[in-house]
Each structure stands twice: as structure tokens, then as C-alpha cells.
Amino acid sequence: MKPQKPTKKQGILIGVALITGLGLTLIGLESLTWSESVLWEDSRSWGGFLGFLAVAAIVIGLLAQQLKLTAGLAVLMAATLLALLAGAIGSLLVAAWFAGACSMVGYWCLGKLRVKDRTFLDCFLAGAGIYGSAVGILAHFPVNYPGVYAVALTLPFLAGWRTVVDEGGRLLQLVDRDSRNRAETEFKWLDVAIGVVALVYFVFAMMPEVGYDALVTHLFVPAHMALRHQWGFDVTTYVWAVVPMLGDWIFSMGYMLGGETAARFINVGFIFVLGWLVRDCVQWAGGSLVGARWAVLVFLSTPLTFTVGCSLYIESIWASFVVAGCLAVLRACSSSPSFGKPGRNELLLSGLLLGCGAAVKAITFTVLPGIMLLLIWRFRTWFKTVGLQSLAGGIGLFLATGGIPYATAWWLTGSPVFPLFNRIFKSPYFGSSENFTNSNYNGGLTWDVLYRVTFDTVKYLEAYAGASGFQWLLLFIPALITLFLYRRIRGGAMFLVAVIAIAVLFHWQSYLRYAFPSWVILTAVIGVGLGTVITTQGHLSKLCCFSLVITVMLNLLFINVGRQTPRDFPLLSMFQSYKDNYLQTRLPIRNAVELVNRLNVERTPVAVFAEPLTAGLSGDALYPNWYNIPFLQEVNSIHDEKDIAAVFKKHRVNFIILDENWSGGSCGPKSERQALIEKASEPVAMYDYVSVRKIKDGNRHVVSRSMRLVVDQETDADTWYPLWTTGVPGNANLVTVKFAKTGTQFRYDKWGCPAVIIEPGASCAGMDRRVDITVDHIDTQWKMAINCNGAVSAADTASNKIDMKDQLGVNGITSTLEGKYPLAKLFPGKLEETQPARKE
Questions:
Q1: What distance in Å separates the CA atoms of residue 430 and residue 422, rounded to the nearest whole number?
Q2: Is the pLDDT higher at 633 or at 398?
Q3: Residue 826: DSSP 8-state
Q4: Of the spans 28-42, 659-673, 688-702, 809-823, which averages the highest pLDDT?
Q5: Is 460:443 a contact under the CB 8 Å cutoff?
Q6: Phi, psi (rounded to 5 degrees) for 276
Q7: Tens of pLDDT along 373-422?
Q8: CA distance 732 to 551
Q9: 3-state class of 694 per DSSP?
Q10: What is the rounded distance in angstroms from the CA atom of residue 542 to the CA atom of residue 124?
Q11: Secondary structure of residue 334 in the 3-state scheme
Q12: Shortest CA distance to 479 belongs to which of 465, 467, 491?
């Protein structure tokens, strides 16, 4: 259909709105201190980012043109190549495996619900919600192993292999048709731009996690599940332990099978799902294809989207469920020529998806008032087509899927929304009878809210100016005017659902991440409105395109203004060989956590006097903050070394992580508290400003074990042999000894654990008969007695103090076990336990 040109008066009104948006944006930009607002670490970081965008655009463009592919397939090829180079192809395959299994389960489930015209997104989201809910139930039991998850993801392919073959064939036909159409049409540079920005997300997914929320919760829970095989739901240790966690359960599936990178790939995958949903919303509302493309590009370039996508937040999963659920309701309410033909049982689908959204975040309930008003307004429509039975079924599915975490919280704490609204539910597990609130974001809705969220963003998010995106001043008002002038009723319906949700939310908390689903829907509204103008010819269309280009450029310039977003562009950190060095510079506590795991073989609790960024810690983390109110109160009450020692003994703490910049929270003056902690412990290793410390002998929980190494064959004088293992699969603290004929030899393994020193002339030198070595292990101290052919060498004690400056080829270290422990397969004897472990 030929696009309808605006009348002269309509064009003037839209043009004035566009020019006004440009003017307000210029005023806001002029008020900024650019050195403090454009937050790239230096010109090298900014240049590296621009260089990546340019190279990616060239590569994708050439692949698409030379191979006659769509831009999407060219991006997929480039992403696969990058994953191969970075060693992340296994994690990428796990994410694809998860997506395929979810689609199969969702296809079967929606078929049982008789949902007509199931799309891939509907099936995928339904399956992801089902898998996540199942993991949430299994989390109560110690059965969460990689094998269990692998079987769960494999069964749908085995049971529905015919469907896989049929749908796979259709997908290949669709790809082939699109490729042939691509060869016959003009090259679409807008698709390349979308692909380039998408590739930025993909690259960041392969980088190590440094985000606060992720390391506190969203990566902590999956890592805990992988290490402990269940989640404790212990609100006395983690106050957030019973909040809705469907997003974390979904991440757990990826983490269990593909590690941290697989979980991050799944997160970015949901960002791409949202981009797809933006396109679907625009097209459903009658928008043009070019308008849909522009809306997707604006969405992906928005700094808020990038903040959510480059770190392991759950907003991507949550918004996917909520936006898809809202779209299903809108489809269910459509029957007139303005709304299109309704689908069957869309209310069942919307109930399932919105229930999954509620199982991810309780903020989902702010969306329900707008949906209820829409159902009341369109009552006659959906009542005639789907009836009350479908509505009742949708409500039932919403309660069944969304009610699981709230029922769990009520059962365990006495409050379904613990720790919120404790004035009402009065749970004994929260330290206050008052409601938990965040007083930082109480701005509410104001007449100038669009300007404020753009340039005064710090009052709405942990971010700086521009984080919400520049489209709200440049594009949003002109798009609304266009919707009104062209009577785009579907776009207006989407606008009302989103705005009502924001109004309800801002009445309670003016926080942009909680409004993320509404931000997604409103971006689609922009695509519907301005897409109508772009398709016309003339000066107004050019002005609209100019505003869109400026919006995307500004969004990319300010893309990293989120406080947890990297200020540099650490492209090399996606390669494994560079990750440790990057973390040592950017977030050394992650390396400290890894060392503690090697030393804390009994997995006793670890006291963390630092930022609570301890994802991957094998023992429970004890934080002296509101996450662990009992521990905070105990630390508050200490006055001397005896007090802090008593606290450590009570909680069986053997190791602590201490940040030298730790403020102490509400625990008192930093110098006094830190001095007591240091007095009760001794240093093990230092990672920049973060230290790993061991509780002194008199203050710690001691485990002793005796082992015997039996060697029955000739030993190689140039070979290192491991003498001590913990018995914990995948975790070994190794004592190593070299049977040397002359000279004192020692070494540190890659974790910094020291070797035993053998003095010159030790009786085992060069012998080829039976060698018995008894190892007594007390935490990180090793005492050894060596008996060789009846002669006993002097007992040697291995120091547990680590000099992190020791490197291969430095300080007399001339030999090493390459990699982890490659010579373990050459181990000439066996390790026998001669005395069971005992606690002293």
C-alpha cells in the first residue's frame, strides 16, 4: 500500500516537534561537562570501540555482498568465527542447545494449549519459562549436576526428532529464500548497522563478568548451584535468597553446562529476542518494515539496553516475558479492522508468559493494571472470540507459573515478598518491622520527565546523563503526534499499556531498570509513528531520518554511561590468556575468590570484608551488611581480637577476603575494625588492594588428614610429582617435590601454592626402590616425613605464605607443571589415606 503523505499542517506540526526535540537535546548537551559525561577511559578505548564498529561494518558488508547473504547470516558467520578464536565455541553451542530445547518444549506445550499460529519466539519463551520453573523446583534438592541438565535438554530432541527435521527444513528454506531475495534487492545498510551493534553485544558476552548485580546475585546463584548442587534458600545468610529467581535458574542451565560465558550468551540472546519483539510489535501495529528496522537499531544502541546486555542482569529475560505477554493480550483483543484478526487462545499464552515474568521479578505486577483496562475496554471483542474459559485458563497459568517463588518465600519466611513490605507481613527473618525501601529513586512523574531521564539520569538509575537514550527528546513526541494524526490505534494501545505501567511504577519507585519492558514497548511505538513519516518522500522524511541518525550516534557515544559498564573496550579480555590479567587490573577480588576456593578445601564459610562480588565462591560468603543482618550485628558488637575470633569460630571461618579500602559499612571506624581483622589473621596472598587472609591457628577451624604416597618404580630425577590432593573433584591443592640429586629445589604451582623444599643429600635422591612419604595436612600447612630404603630424611615444613612475585624463571624457579597438572598422568604410585580426616 502506498504510504499516505501528511497534509501541509500535519507536516508542519511533526517538523516543529522534531526541531524542538533537536533544540532541547542541544541545550541538554551544552549543559554537560563533557570530560565527565563521555566516560571512555581514554582516547585509546574510544578509538578501539570506533575501530571495532568500522571493521565489523566492513566485514559484515563484504560477507553479505560477496556471498549474497542477508546481513543476519553475515553477522552469524562473523560471531561464530570470533567465538572460535576466543575459545568460546563450546559455550555458544550450549546456548544454542538451550534455545533449541526450549523451542521444542514450548512447541509441544503450546500445542497442548491449542495456541494457534505458534511463532518461534512464543515457543522459545514458553519453553524457557518451563525449564526455569523446573530448575527452581530442583534447586531445593542436591541433584543439580551437569549430567541431569544435559539429559533434560536432550530429551526434547529425542522425543520430537520428526518436528526438528520438519521445522529445520522449513528454516533452511526460509534462509535460502531470504538469501535469494537479498541478491535481487538493494543492499540494506540499515541491516548492517543493526548487525554491527549486535556484534558488540556478542563480543562483550565473551568478556569476564565485572558487574555488581551479576557478581552479587545473578552469577553467584548459578555458580553456587554448580558447586553445591542446590540452593540453600537461607535468608539468614543471603537476605535475597527467596526472591523470584526464574532468570537466575535459566542462567544456571547455561552455567552448569558451559560456564560463565554460556550464561552471558543466554543473557545476550534474550536481548536479541527483545529486538525481535520490537520488530513484531511495530509490524503488528501496522508500522513499516523500515520503521521496524529503525526501532530495533534505536533499541540496541540505547545505553540502558547495553547496560542490561553487557552484564548478567535478569532484565533481559524479564522484559522478554512481559513484552511478549503484553503483545499476546493485544492480539487477543484485536478483531476490528483497526486491530486485525484475533488469534485463538492468546490469553492462555499471555497468562503463561506474564506468569513467567512475575517469577523473574515482582515488578511485573505494575504491568497488570494497563492490561486489565485493555481487557475491560475490549471486553466484547475477546469475549466473543476466546471467551471466559480462555481468560480463566490464562489466570490459572499466571498463578501456576508466577506463584511458585512467592509460595516458597511465604513457606520459608512467612512473607510472600520477603524482604519487602515487612510492616505488613512481619517476618521474623528481617531485622526491621518497617518496609524495605530505596530512598534514592523517589522522583515520581513530572511534566519534564523526558528531559530529566535523559540529562538527569542519576536520579533514575545508577548511571550518568544519557543512559536512558536520547530518543525520548528527539523522537518520542514526534512519534506520538504522528500516531494521533494518522490514527494508529494499535500503536496507541501499546502506548497506553506502557505508560500506565510506568505511572504505577513511578508512584512507588522511579527506577528505569524496573521500567525496562515499558521502554521496549515505547521504542516500538517510536518505530510505528516515525516509520509512517520515513516512507513518504520529501523534506519531512529527510528530517526524520536525520533525527534518527543523530539519536543512534549519541546513543553509541554515551553507550557505556551505566556505572557498572566498562569504561574501556577490553577486546582482548575475551581471550582466556588475557582474562586473568584483565581481572587483576579491573576486579582483583575475582582472582582472590579463585585462590580461596583452592585453599578452602572443606568449603567452610568465608568472611568477606569487601564489596560482595564473590560469585563462584565454593563456601558460603558472610557479608557484614544488610544481606546478612545477623553477621552484621555480630561484627558491630566486636571490641577486641577475642570478639572477632569468637565470631570467626562460631561461623567456622578459616579464610577471609579483605579489601584495604573496605569502609566497614556501619561497623565503625575503618582503621579500628580493619586492625582487629588483620590482628586475628595472617596474609596469604595480595591481589592489588584485595588480600586473602587465613585465620590464625588459635582462632580457626582445623582439619587434619594423613596420607601416604607409595612409589614402586624408578623416579625421574627431572620430574615433579603431586603428593597431596584434597579428594574434591576438580579442586586440588598440590604439594610437589623434586627427587633431585643435588641442590635445593622449590616451586609454586599456578595457584600460588608452595612446594616442599628437599635439602641437598636427601636420602631419596636417585633411588629406584620403594619410597614412602607421609603427608600431614592442616589447612594450608604441610608436614612431611620421607622414608626411602629405611633412611628417614629430616622433616620439612612447607610454608603457606605466598610470594606472588615468584614467576617461572625468577627467584630460582626453574621447573613447572605446564597448565594445571599435566604430569599427574605420569604419577608413579598411589595416594592412600592412613588416617581419616579429623576436626580439632
A1: 8
A2: 398
A3: G
A4: 28-42
A5: yes
A6: -65, -40
A7: 999 988 888 887 777 888 999 999 999 999 999 999 999 999 999 888 87
A8: 53
A9: strand
A10: 38
A11: coil
A12: 491
Alpha carbon separation from 470 to 550, 566, 770 (Å, rounded): 9, 20, 76
pLDDT surpasses 60 at 699: no
Distance CA 362, CA 418 (A): 11
Q: Which of 201, 251, 195, 244 is nearest to 221 (CA)?
A: 251
What is d(CA 437, CA 16) in angstroms, rounded to the nearest whole number?
Answer: 42
How far is Cα 628 from Cα 774, in angstroms, rounded to an integer? Answer: 42
Q: Which amino acid makes up residue 274?
A: L
Tally of helices (H runs) and strands (E runs) in the chain? 32, 13
Q: 186 phi and psi, to 5 degrees?
A: -65, 145
The closest of 718, 710, 719, 724 to 771, measured between CA atoms, is 710
Q: CB–CB of 360/247 below 8 Å?
A: yes
The answer to whether 215 and 614 are in contact (CB under 8 A) is yes
Please give the Cα distance from 513 to 436 (Å, whole number): 18
Is residue 720 helix, strand or coil?
A: strand
**DSSP class of 203:** H
Count the alpha carbons within 13 Å of 226 in the hemisphere toward its beta carbon.
Answer: 23
Most confident of 22-26, 413-417, 826-830: 22-26
Residue that is written with C-alpha cell 554491527 in the block: 196
Angle at CA of residue 320, ends 319 and 322, nearest 5°: 60
What does the block give as the cell for 391? 481468560
CA distance 294 to 374: 27
Decide if 693 contacts 656 (C-beta within 8 A). Answer: yes
Question: Which residue is associated with the grid cell 552448569?
Answer: 256
Residue 783's pLDDT band (cuts 50, 70, 90)? very low
| pLDDT per position as a tens digit, 564-619 | 777 788 888 898 888 888 888 889 999 999 999 988 888 999 999 999 999 999 99
In whole angstroms, how far apart are CA 598 and each of 185, 591, 616, 683, 738?
58, 11, 12, 15, 22
Q: Could you count the other beta carbons within 10 Å of the beta carbon of residue 354?
A: 28
CA-CA distance, 40 to 561, in Å (whole number)?
A: 9
Cβ atoms of 781 and 797 within 8 Å: the answer is yes
The DSSP-derived string for 625-669 is SGGGHHHHHHHHT--SHHHHHHHHHHTT--EEEEETT---TTSS-
β-pairing, 655-659 vs 736-738, is unpaired
d(CA 460, CA 364): 18
Reported pTM: 0.83
How far, CA to CA in Å, does 66 sit from each of 176, 192, 195? Answer: 16, 14, 17
Per-residue model confidence as pLDDT tens digits over 110-154: 988 888 778 889 999 999 999 999 999 999 999 999 999 999 999
Biggest alpha carbon–alpha carbon distance for the chain? 106
Fill in the DSSP letter of residue 538. Answer: S
C-alpha cell, 619: 563456601
Give the separation between CA 434 and CA 411, rounded to whole angstroms. 21
| Distance of alpha carbon 455 from alpha carbon 451, whole angstroms | 6
